[in-house]
């Protein structure tokens, strides 16, 4: 090929590039991802979400884009971040493991589909009309935490049967703090136990909550994205105050927490990815029943139990999905 012909061909190709890219991008659906915490503590979970999308035929950067909005623990920013996603006319808003983000998205739009992953009852929160027929622009996955909370409290009492005081730590800045407190009290009542609810949102408030615990107390940490992000510091405080503590996520025993019981969140985020793909393919949230997590797990850190002077019964160890030693 002659030099002049080569230059002409390159020039024609180059001229087409700026026009081809926007045309391809314009046809690519965009998922708006809204969360009250930050990327770092949720990186592994996000990998599960991408896997779920990929299994359903959507690969980020190829035939779907994701616009991320992280509030970095500042729930007051969520309405603005939700409004920003709405202004960009995203195809769907995903709010996973962040009830504050779900409520902000729901307040921001009644037309753009919303997919949530929460621990609470979405009917009680006003997100859907019913679990089987959501009826609006939102649907998702809900673990219906009443049963889970009762199970966590039961396991906590089993591992520390002589504990005199049961306490629960909730994030006071989370809009679901009051309904969750009510749920916790009901679960404790079924066990014939008295429960003290401690509310905190900042590091200093959390430290004061731990300091207020009486000797012989056990603690249940509520489901909250900011608590998940602070899991290492919560575990350190529990060790410092020698408080047997139950968590909702299996990552906490990995960093020294006593035990956890709850959904496998990475699996649930993967499940969410598959559901969001169904919305991208044209299914309506109003017609997609609210699902439940498909995988739950019970994890015990035996090293921490020994440090706390707890004797974990063999029968309890046998029921655990994983023992950290």
Please give a structural write-up.
It is a single chain. The protein is of the alpha/beta class and 325 residues long. Strand 9, helix 10 and strand 10 form a beta-alpha-beta unit. The strands form two sheets. A seven-stranded mixed β-sheet has the order 7-6-8-9-10-11-12, sandwiched between helices. Strands 2-1-3-4-5 form a five-stranded parallel β-sheet, with helices on both faces. Helices cover 44% and strands 19% of the residues.
What's the quick description here?
By secondary structure, the protein is α/β, with parallel strands linked by helices. Helix content is 44%, strand content 19%.
Strand order of the largest sheet: 7-6-8-9-10-11-12
Described by the principal axes of the CA atoms, the overall outline is: elongated
Percent strand: 15-25%
SS-derived structural category? alpha/beta
Give the termini separation.
Answer: 69 Å
Radius of gyration: 23 Å
**Secondary-structure element order, as H and E?**
HEHEHEHEEHEHEHEHHEHEHEHHE
CATH superfamily of the largest domain: Response regulator
Task: Report the mean per-residue pLDDT as an integer.
Answer: 90
Number of helices: 13
Which architecture name of the largest domain does CATH use? Answer: 3-Layer(aba) Sandwich
The overall number of domains is 2
**What percent of residues adopt helix (DSSP H or I)?**
40-55%
